[in-house]
Amino acid sequence: MFRTLGILLLLTGCERFYGERRVLAPAFPHEPRTLDWYLAEDPASHFILQQTQRGLTWLDANGKVIAALADGWSTDASRTQYAFTLSPSAKWSDGVPVTAEHFAYGWNRWLQGDRKRAPQGLALVETVVAHGPGQLKVTLQQPDPDFLKTLADPRLGPQRPDVASAFPTAFADPLHLRSTGPYQVLEWKPGSHLWLVANSYFYGGKPALDKVQLVFATVPLNAFGNPDYASTLWKLKP
């Protein structure tokens, strides 16, 4: 449903750009509906989250599970008890270290709400508890062979309780939004465009582009009545 690898490579795989350039790329027929983790169900919103947020794990180009905000993990013989150690380089876009408490806060918000809407990675999660700032312990109801892979969903990233409490209805507004991914949202003008800028605190280092402007356009229908994605231009600036 959220297969956006082709677009993702445009943002993270290009080595250099000179001047201003327009790139033809697959696009979505609508702009993001929200930047809120808990309301993002459309592909466009999920795509923005892929650029701005990270969870404990990530998937490489071959679909292999790799560490993201976690430095490593271990599990018991039953495969129902997981202990994640957070990476010391995991930081928010304002320089604040990512802690296990941030993950516990974010996941428990899902678990204590409407679990039917929760990401797949939480389907079998029974409890999630922070043990100090650097370790997160998760208990599953039963083994899940795909558990680590599902944690790559950016909606299962950490949450900042201080930001959520200070701006309960606007914590996902670009003015208050904090990021853990390669980019952060600089500006969003509904109906026009959205600016992404490089997150200088990203654990993976500086991304290929310093700035990315996503220009929203109505995607016309092709001869078969389906959205003609290839006709939409995404404007990229270095």
Could you tell me how far the N terminus lies from the C terminus, measured between alpha carbons in angstroms? 30 Å
Q: Based on CA inertia axes, which overall geometry fits?
A: globular
- Weakly predicted, low-confidence segments: 1-28, 231-238
Category from helices, strands and their pairing: alpha+beta
Mean pLDDT: 81
What is the percentage of strand-forming residues?
Answer: 15-25%
Query: What helical percentage do the residues reach?
Result: 10-25%
Q: What are the main properties of this structure?
A:
4-stranded antiparallel sheet; disordered N terminus; 5-stranded antiparallel sheet; 238 residues
Architecture overview:
The chain has 238 residues and is an alpha+beta fold. The protein has five helices and eleven strands; from the N terminus they run H-E-H-E-E-E-E-H-E-E-H-H-E-E-E-E. Strand 4 (70-75) and strand 5 (81-86) form a beta hairpin. It is globular and about 50 Å long. 33% of the residues are buried.
